[in-house]
Amino acid sequence: MSIHDRLRAHGITLPKAAAPVASYVPVVVDGHTAYVSGQLPFVDGKLVTGKLGDSVTLEQGQQAARACGLMILAQLEAAGLLERVSHMVKLGGFVASTPDFTDQPKVANGASDLMVEVFGEAGKHARSAVGVPVLPLDAAVEVDAIVALKA
Fold first, then answer.
1. Cα radius of gyration (the chain)
2. Which of 67, 69, 113, 138 has the CA that lies 20 to 30 A from 45?
């Protein structure tokens, strides 16, 4: 089953790949590895902003992380790489949160679970989930990725 077939089977529609907001490119390929720049969460066309532990609930944070994961897939699609994904190597999850919020791993599960949903076993990956005081544009979550590509 192709990745596009899997997306359809799961009822997943990819968003339009977002343009960079600064001086970088969305995806860089080195050999058989794609590095996807940090992606911000857009839900229903609106950036999810705020901090976990304050104005953003755990469930909203997980939804935001999933939206970041969808944008990672959209960037791979825009670069013509989505069908070449061999497996997800690593996700980096950055969660804007208050000092007492400690559920960053649960938030990042929103993106991690999406990758397993879409790629199956090939979606399992290493990961970091880090709490930060602020993210670009006051985003609640940002996720980047390292992806192995088929030859």
1. 14
2. 113
